[in-house]
Prior knowledge:
The protein is built from four helices and seven strands. The chain is an alpha+beta fold. It has a five-stranded antiparallel β-sheet. A two-stranded antiparallel ribbon has the order 4-5.
Amino acid sequence: MKPVAEREIRASFVNCTKGEVKRLAVPKDLGTRPWDDLDFLGWQDPSSPSRAYLVAEQGDRLVGVALRRAAPNAGHVRRSMCSLCLTTHTGDGVSLMTARRAGGSGDSVGAYICTDLACSLYLRGKKDVGIGGRMPESLTLEEKITRTAANLSEFLQKVTA
C-alpha cells in the first residue's frame, strides 16, 4: 500500500457521516507504518475497543470503512480463522467486525477479521501469531497476498453495494 495522509484517510470513508469522520481517531504513527508490507491500513480506536477502522486501495481510490467489534467472548480458547488472511488465533485474536452499508440503508455486513487488523503482517511473517497460527500452504507469498486482497475486496464490495 502506498503511504496515505490523514486528509486522504478521512476523505475515504464510505459508511460514516461527516461528523463521524471528523471525530474518528486517525493513527498518530502514519509516518512510521511499514507501508510496503501493508495490503490495507487497519487500526482500533484507542478510546473505544469496540471501534475499528480499515482503509484500502480499491482500483484508483481509497475506501475506508468504520467497523464495530462484537463483544469479546470471555474464556474463548478454541481457534478462530480470519476470513481475510486465513490466520488462526486463539482467544480473542479474531473478532466479528461489522460495518454499516454505505448509503444509509441501515443494513450491515460482517466478517471475522484479526482483532488487531494486522493481517498483512501475519501473512508476511512480520508478526508472530504463535504455533499453528499459519497453516502450511503450497501457495507463494504473492498468491497469498492476492487471495487476501480478493477477500478484502469482496468484503468492501458488500459494504459499498
